[in-house]
Amino acid sequence: MDIVRFENNYVARLKKLYRFHIEEANFATDGIPKHILLDHTRNIHSYLIFCKKSGDTILSSYWNHETFSGMLGKFIKSQFSTLDRPLFLIIEDDDGVSNVVEGNVIREYMLGSHKLDELSKFILNGMDRLPEVVLKISNEL
After folding, report:
1. Which CATH topology does 3-140 take?
2. Per-domain residue ranges of the chain
3. pTM of the model
4. Given CA atoms 15, 18, 14, 101 in this order, what sign does their dihedral have?
5. Source organism's superkingdom (predicted)?
6. 5-30: average pLDDT
7. Is the Cβ–Cβ distance between 121 and 112 less than 8 Å?
8. Which residue intervals of the chain are DSSP H helices?
């Protein structure tokens, strides 16, 4: 399945399972994700990037293996400089299990003295399970 179809199917699944109001942002650009989670007043709660884990690689419609850390860095920079809303990477692994990493965690790693070529390994090892994060998000919505 190609990554865009995966994203669309995943959005539909989250809407059905958790009754999330996920929309595509018409203001999405190179550094702003196209999927937004809206609260009950239709204000933006957070930005979402849907990813698929393939081995030690994180696939998305926004990047390929070579541009991963650069593009993700662009999203993290936009999140803190202009968006002022949380950013979540929702990653489905090879077994269909969904995990989440918040943009703040990635930002701290990138600002530290860490190797960017190990960023995907850091993300894959530091993920939270989606149902745990959904409970926290649902309370905020």
Report:
1. Trna Endonuclease; Chain: A, domain 1 (3.40.1350)
2. 3-140
3. 0.89
4. positive
5. Bacteria
6. 89
7. no
8. 3-18, 68-78, 103-111, 119-125, 130-140
